[in-house]
Amino acid sequence: MTSFAEYYDRRAPEYDDWYLGAGLFADRDRPGWREDVDALCGAVAALPPARVLDVACGTGFLTRHVRGEVTGLDQSERMLAEAAARLPHARLVKGDAFGLPFEDGEFERLMTGHFYGHLDPGERERFVAEARRVAGELLVIDSALHDGVEPEEWQERTLNDGSRHLVYKRYFTAPGLVAELGGAGDVVHDGPWFVAVRSPLT
User: Fold this and answer.
1) Which of 81, 84, 141, 131 is nearest to 106 (CA)?
2) Backbone angles phi, psi at 87, to 5 degrees
3) 18 backbone φψ class: left, alpha, beta (φ>0; ψ -120 to 50)
4) CB 201 within 8 A of CB 136
């Protein structure tokens, strides 16, 4: 088994297969998946333009729909290389989500997609503290709780090269995520596969 960081670095060239239902995901039975991906992208695009930091931006699959002045951050150089091809006008930075290399209040919104659900309680606390330092609101996009998964579980994942990786993963209801982030937020998207919640940080 490899580290979480190495897993995502190795996964970069095939990461979008998960969204697109291609490669190892082509035969998965996910009713309504494509429609929910489209709805999630539409919900991101409908948000007001802002100075946005996308933490753990990955390949930029969701980042490309953000309106405003966009900065993407990821710890993986390979993910950032994928994102660079998709986001020619964004600023892309290699960095640590728990020690963001930005000034206090530099952004109006901090967004993160499918990162928050991999954090343990201590990591969540550190991440939200950093988000609060650099931005006025937090947008969390993650996986919806659905049949066949537990709210919290360890998953063994296999990549195209046959390597196996143990990954911690949480699934959310939209109201539960609002409550976890302080209770004052609003639901941006609540679908069968994805949830997105926007919460004030001030």
Assistant:
1) 131
2) -125, 70
3) alpha
4) yes
Q: Name the region of 74 (left: φ>0; alpha: ψ -120 to 50; beta: rest).
A: beta
Q: How big is the CA angle at 83 (ends 79 and 88), to the nearest 5 degrees?
A: 155
DSSP 127: H
**HSE toward the beta carbon, residue 38, CA cutoff 13 A:** 4
Phi, psi of 121 (to 5 degrees): -55, -45
Give the containing element (helix H, strand E) for 121: helix 121-134
CA distances from 17 to 11, 28, 97 (A): 10, 12, 24
Strand ranges (E), 90-185: 91-94, 107-113, 135-143, 152-158, 164-170
Per-residue pLDDT of 9-64, as tens digits, reads 999 999 999 999 999 999 999 999 999 999 999 999 999 999 999 999 999 999 99
Q: Does residue 117 contact residue 109 with C-beta atoms inside 8 Å?
A: no
pTM of the shown model: 0.96
169's tokens: 């993963």
DSSP code of 22? -
12's tokens: 């970069």
